[in-house]
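Input sequence (233 aa), recorded before submission:
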Amino acid sequence: MATHYRTKGLIIAKRDFREADRFFTFFTKDYGRVEALAKGERKIESKLRGGLELFYLSEISFIQGRYWKTLVDASLIDNFSNIREDLTKMKAASLIGRQISTLVKGKEEDQELWNLIKNTFQRLNDSPRNFLIHQYFFWRFVSHLGYQPQLYKCVNCKQELDRDRLYFSADQGGMVCKNCKQGLNQRVDPGTVKIIRTALEKNWKEVSKLKVNSHQKDLNELSAFYFAHLKNL
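Predicted structure, token format:
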């Protein structure tokens, strides 16, 4: 008799399979990243459909088959309705989901990462600060995975950073001073570095008070640049 596994999971990706089936990727409370097949989910009469949609938080039950896991039950806990009704929030959620599904490889329990992901979607649902929520998530996320950038000294010469001219090296994993910047084009504003430091060192309540409008373009370019590097590792 097959063993049933039950846990809470947030759906971060989905893809069609065969004529009426669909694979869902979850980040779960008890098993980390889980990909499971929902047989017949694309049929209107499927009993699974009510608990399965992108960015749903659901309680799921699955069994381990020979080739893949198969969902046997999915009960909705929270559909984060405010995210679904706001295009900007949906874009942020989609980017966060893509970053999770791309960079998380492990399939074991990770309570800290589960809390970060679950709290991020709750904040995105409840708060208007969509951009800052994503930046707070991203830098804490990559740091948790072991890719926290060096933000206080030049990663090359180890000297204190010059506030006026800063550069970022994805290959070396952090900030580079003007004397070591040969070949680097990713220049970074000192205010941007300060915001990232704060995101890594302070809790959300304190970070949520930050004013980031003047640094939004710089933060967006830097996080996108670093993500593009990490997904190719």
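Checked by second reader. The two ends are 40 Å apart (CA to CA).
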